[in-house]
Structure formats: structure tokens, C-alpha cells
Design brief:
Length: 126
Amino acid sequence: MTVFRLRPHHGLCLLHFVGKGYSRPFSANMLQIAACLQKEPNTSIELCAGADCLCAYCPHRKGHICESEKPERYDHAVLQCSGLQIHRKLVWKDFRERMAALSRRNLRTICGDCEWYLLCAAIEIN
Ligand code: SF4
């Protein structure tokens, strides 16, 4: 069974994704992954540190490292607010539910200084 490695705050990014991103390849990759998870909500997720498959076309990625300090900070905030830990495994639909609750309660606290924040904050997550 495939286990999908995901850095914690990308659970929020996937929920709020509306097709906008750094570049066309970045957005196409994100869209494909979001569609796969929506189609297969029982996909196993393992929370990871550092770059994951959503980072593949990100301009800030340098190998397995992100040159921006924000993603690590957002990951840490998601873990703190959700009670989850790195290496925790769970299925996408459960992770999605936790991220939806975080989005309603804590989005500004977690990632309020992200360049996409205003776009994400305007989306109502059910
Ligand atoms: S504001 Fe940024 S970090 Fe937060 S969910 Fe949106 S894209 Fe992801």
C-alpha cells in the first residue's frame, strides 16, 4: 500500500487550493495530488519534515530543503494546534477533517503571513 508523505501544513494548502500557484507546473502538480486524494479519501498519509511531493516545482525548494523559513514554522504550528506529530500515519479523510477544523479556528495564527493567505481565508471549508 502506498503511503503518501505530506508535510503538515500542506494539509491546509490542499484544502484551500483553487488552482493558483507559483507556476503552471507547480499548480498542475498540486491539482493532480488534490484530485487523487479527493478520489481516494482512504489514502494513507505519513506526516513528514522537509520537502514533500507538493514541493516538487516550488521555486523555494533546494533539494530536500526549503530556503524559506515560513513552511517549517507553519508545520510546527499545525502540529501544535492539532496534537499530531511528525511520522504520524493516518488516512487522508481523517487528516482532512482535522485540517478543516484548524482552518476554521486557526488559519490566521498558523499561516497568516503566507502570500496566499487572503485567497485561502476567503474560502469556506466544509
Ligand atoms: S495561507 Fe498559505 S500556508 Fe496557509 S493554507 Fe493557504 S497556501 Fe497554505
